[in-house]
Amino acid sequence: MRLTELKTSIDSFGDEQAADRSVALKGHGFSHATERMGMIAALAAEEMLIVQNTFPQGLRPKFLLSRRAARLKPRPFKATIFAGPGPISPVLIQALQACSYLLALAAALSISAAAQAPPTPAARFAVVLDAAHGGNDPGGLLKDQAGANQPEKTFTLALSVRLRSLLAARGISVVTTRESDATVDPDRRSEIANHANAQACLSLHTTQSGSGIHLFVSSLTPAEPARFTPWKTAQAAWVTRSLALAGVLNSALLHAGMTVTLGRSALPVVDSMTCPAVAVEIAPEVTSSQAQPTGPGDSGYQARVAQALAAAILQWRSVGSRTDASHAEVLLP
Question: What is the per-residue pLDDT for 225?
């Protein structure tokens, strides 16, 4: 209810009484700060414009009662306040002034809080793809679809580019350790993953030995998170989560009809990462329907592997991306 509506009918007490109780305001020249606060509420009720609000920062009541609490637009208006027959009770006037003060203070505080509190951004889900080898490190030799020998670095980069496109199309932020045939130091690969604050890292390899997909997790003994972590054993605090990530990858690859081998090994690049990390090694695919195994260089084989890995990352994002280990400061070598 507006302040000017706190009245009884004029007809009930006579026009002369009503006129006597009218307060003509010019929007300025109030003699008391408490009256001025009541008039601010009256102005707002009459939809008058407050030109400038000079409330001190912090909105502390002792400052709000200063004589320069507000400067209003000098626009004449009339507000009639009724309390019934006879003189207006001083207690009622004080109660109305206190209510208007509290309403003005609550409105100012709510506006200030809304302006100062930025929206909480959504948590960023990032994946690091580490295409092994590159530049002056060719890796092993594998045969392409034409039967010619090609360095491993070519196939790992092709798989990284293919998987990056699939993940980006699904709204996942992807960070890669290399986008071309460039030499990347092992420690630099780990630094990229750690700086990305990734929820998963896949170190991509290919091999001509064995068959199916090989998944490797660091052989470091699981350790509790620490404030400072040695560089070469930073992965120890994340091994448990890396094993969980390997399980999700294993399920997706098996669902795609591929053979999967799980193992643990010393992994110099992965061992320095502070995120769930798994080395994925693609070996030739051997099936009963084919006389010759399908090598890692086969584009169709790579496409199916990339699809299965992308499905696994989506699953990891929805159910398993929350990490138990805190972000530690890693002591560089």
Answer: 87
